[in-house]
Amino acid sequence: MAIDATDIALSLLKIAIVLGVMLQVTPIMAWVERRGSALIQDRPGPNRVGPFGLIQSFADALKFIFKEDIIPAGAHKWLYTLAPAMGLIPALTTIAVVPWGRPFRIPETIEYNGLVATVGWATAGFLLLLAFVVGAATGRLSHKPGVSRLNIVIGWLVTGSLAGLAFAIGGILIYLRSRYIVEVPAAGGRLFEPIVADVDIGILLIFALASLGVYGIVSAGWASNNKYSLFGGIRASAQMISYELSLTLAAISALLVAGSLRLSDVVWGQTGYFVLFDTIKLPAWNIVSPAMWISFIVFSVSAFAETNRLPFDFAEAEAELVAGYHTEYSSMKFALFFMAEYMSMFTMSCVVTTLFLGGWDVPYYNEPPTFIGFFFSALAFLAKAGFLMFVFVWVRWTIPRLKYDILMRVGWKVFLPLALVNIVLVALFIAKGWI
Amino acid sequence: MIEFAVFFFFAAVAVIFALVVVLHRNPVVGALSLVASFFALAVMYVLLDAPFLAALQVIVYAGAIMVLFLFVIMLLNLQYQREEPTRPIQQFLGYFGSAAFGVSLVYYISKYAVIASGPKTRFVTSAKTIGIRLFEAYILPFEMVSILLLAAIVGALVLTSKAAGKQVTE
Q1: Distance, in angstroms, between A30 CA and closest chain B CA?
Q2: For residue A266, which of A154, A173, A258, B114 is within the disulfide window of CB 3.0 to 4.6 Å?
């Protein structure tokens, strides 16, 4: 099957969508973390910077840009600078093999009907409103003395681009209305598979890139020339390689059910229904079957350990190791570590939904292979992954940190045998035909 | 065409990082360069139609073994060992010997090597077939490797046990 320019363009579009979503995860999760922790701790949380503190992440991003970037004396300059990048690369690339929607056929023609008109004009109007608000704020700011030119320039740029986007959407809608039916150029009729890289070895790539995530932390800890960072880095590396084993073995149970290493096959296998006693119809998600409960728990706990979230956050260990491996990092380098942590959380949530919660399958709805089916399946996927992200935050602020030797003992002596037992259990269920 | 470019790029990466491992004075930088070299090798495996092996290379070698190397280097705080400067006769023998070896290798390979026309049977790449073959045709090497690993584990335990305080004579 030859690859032509349209395939490349569609791939680039998929990459742009996935990358765009991944880059939005950090600001949104920063807000969720701070308001969520405040909710659990019975305090208000950030509520000054915008309505409900929604602009707080934007303010944090500006702070990261303008803070001084330090390289401590005695640090290994190359590794110190490269370590955040080494931590970010596995976090950004693992999401490439996760299927995030139902494959659908791109329609050959787009018709200008009521739905398209409403959605299009509503979006354009909303963007114009945003542009007006930002423009007014920038205008007021430009009259104050002592405001840096950069802020004003950024303000006008944002206003201009929002207004330009609104006018572009309006122009497209007017064009559509005049033509009434428009043919989709070149891509019409093709199958759009919402997965960036549907390789035969999908799940193995996730394991491979997860194991590469250790290097960012270890290099950061060592290159900082700081004993607290070194301790954080070494403890984190030992913890991560120990829990990689139980992660892998727990995922194998889900793969046994699917019979293939491709993640899209794993999700397709979960789109059916289990029928109990000829009456009750349950969606055939892996978590519904009792054989998978142990591996779901083991995988989730190992996911916490892999992403260095509480109760396994020895890499950071606030109040114990100052700030662990990122003690000496400031400004943009710290922002990269911060982003890497939330992105790997999101990737792990996506992998858990794919393996156990049925991926993009909407329960009790037979998604048609059209754009509407894809849209609802992508929404379902995001809802499941989003719920798991909230569970990550919830657990962080509820459970205290485990003592390090207990953590290692639990990893090797409890979760590894449990994962092995579960593989045998799942194999038994498959042999008996109960799955 | 693209395969050509990818091959040469990653071959260059593998060679350059391998040279960094050998020539750089800092062992941590050396270990991380070895990781990069292994990653480039994994790309070679993909080009040779073996994606399963490539993923295993990254998982096992780059992801586990090299982490243990780094762990040891950092825990023991291994530094650059300053060696005594080599004498001129050592340098001459070293350069001459390796040049002679290299030249004879290239000569004999180009003279006697036969470029194979490709494997007779289709290269097995799917995980399922590899798994089945491993438990049917290649069961003996499989079991032997597991015993080898067991010997390594037992050896490590014996060497680091409390009794290692006294002289371990075996």
Answers
A1: 29
A2: A258
